[in-house]
Amino acid sequence: MTDMTDPEIQRAHDALVPYVEPEGLGRPEGRSVRQRPNTSVIESYLIQQHTWRTEVGNVVTRASVERPLTPEEIEAAAPADHWLVTAWNPLGNRRSLSENERLNERLRSELAEQGASIEGVAATTPPDRSWVEDALVVTGIREEAILEIARDYWQPAITALSPTTLTIVPTGILPGLRGGIALREDVASPPTCPMRIDDEPDALCTMRGGPWVSASIHAALLWKVHRGLLLSRLGCVPCADGSRPTLGPLAKTGGPIAIRPGDLDLASRYGGYVWR
Ligand SMILES: [Zn+2]
């Protein structure tokens, strides 16, 4: 049914989409079955990265995989002075975007009440961008105090940053999640579309699904929701943050789909997207 004769669209479909769909998009029962995430929750903390938008492009902060820190480097490292903490997606509970955003606002006020400064927001994602969390960038507060607040929000860990190190600091609520310190790496993120996994610098966002049947309509809605999330947090250079048209069936027919995205719980490190 999809017009697969357009090679550009065909290539984009081959590039897949960076999220996990519910079990069955064509039936209400199938749409409420949450799929497992691409990695375990514990692994998600080890591979996650934090993207900062700057005037000259995105910068990704992550633990370096090139080599472990030497004991001398750990000894010589300055103490952490920034922490990344979120209230999103508390320990596997399903949350919509607006619920997550409300939780983060509460977290922000609680941190401020304790005298912390919030310097900004970073987007935490796995490398495949199958989920995203807004992380508050916090300074001017003791780590113990942030940890206690994070635990109240059912967050298994926070991230501590020094100029040279990145540390996962567990709150203790997720058995098996161990802390660890790594060499901090800040790298320029390539200006490719975050909705594609083929990393082609000029390739546009390309729609999945279409207007035909229930499954394709729901696939299209999911695509729109994830694209909205990723573009608002990471931008998309090829489509100029969404101002250039996307490729795909609705790009030609136009018009939004009459389903409310509020009915959807977000994909997270605990599982894929799911309808309520
Ligand atoms: Zn794009």
Explain how this protein is built.
The chain is of the alpha+beta class and 276 residues long. It folds into 2 domains: 7-37 and 191-275, no CATH class; 41-188, no CATH class. It has 8 helices and 10 strands. It has helices spanning 7-14, 28-31, 41-47, 71-76, 97-113, 143-152, 214-234, 249-253, and strands spanning 49-54, 57-63, 82-85, 117-125, 133-139, 157-161, 165-170, 180-188, 264-265, 274-275. The strands form 2 sheets. The chain has an 8-stranded antiparallel barrel. Strands 9-10 form a two-stranded antiparallel ribbon. It is globular and about 60 Å long. The two termini are 28 Å apart. The structure holds zinc ion. Zinc ion binds next to loops. This is DUF3293 domain-containing protein. Pfam families: DUF3293. It comes from Longivirga aurantiaca.
